[in-house]
Design brief:
It contains 5 helices and 5 strands, in the order αβαααββββα. By secondary structure, the chain is of the alpha+beta class. The chain has one domain: Ribosomal Protein L22, Chain A (Alpha-Beta Complex), CATH 3.90.470.10. It has a 3-stranded antiparallel sheet, sandwiched between helices. A hairpin with a 5-residue loop joins β3 and β4. α3 runs antiparallel to α4.
């Protein structure tokens, strides 16, 4: 790794130390399905987002709810206090593709159809509403 790339990586690591986030890797559902649920809660206050996820019918909502609770707990651990109502919001949430599992399904006349079992990675950042107002 070159010097410039190493310095950039270290700067990113230092910035992440002050941010509260949680990652969910290799979720066995397609990224498209997960993005539908992620779009519901993007930019919302965390306790409102928990309510939305709790009453959503999507399977991905349960996984995102658990991830959001983890991010809140990470924020509380870094700041040594409990999160209060209307204090935290979801600053960033994004869904990336994970490696696909490729399988074959038997098909007529000796052929095989390819099955792509998709997976995804979700990253969720929480921040205080005070910081949101300072940035704007």
């Amino acid at each position: 790794m070159g010097v410039r790339k190493r310095n950039s990586a270290e700067a990113i690591k230092e910035a992440r130390k002050s941010q509260a986030f949680a990652k969910l890797t290799n979720v066995p559902s397609s990224p498209r399905k997960m993005r539908l649920v992620a779009d519901l809660v993007r930019g919302k206050e965390v306790f409102r987002a928990l309510g939305i996820l709790k009453f959503s019918n999507k399977e991905a909502a349960a996984k995102l709810e658990k991830l959001l609770r983890s991010a809140i707990a990470n924020w509380e651990a870094k700041n040594d206090r409990k999160a209060e109502n209307d204090e935290l919001y979801i600053s960033t949430i994004f869904v990336n593709c994970a490696p696909m599992l490729k399988r074959l399904r038997t098909a007529p006349q000796g052929r095989g159809y390819r099955i792509r079992k998709r997976a995804n990675h979700v990253t969720l950042f929480v921040d205080t509403i005070d910081n949101k107002e300072k940035k704007a």
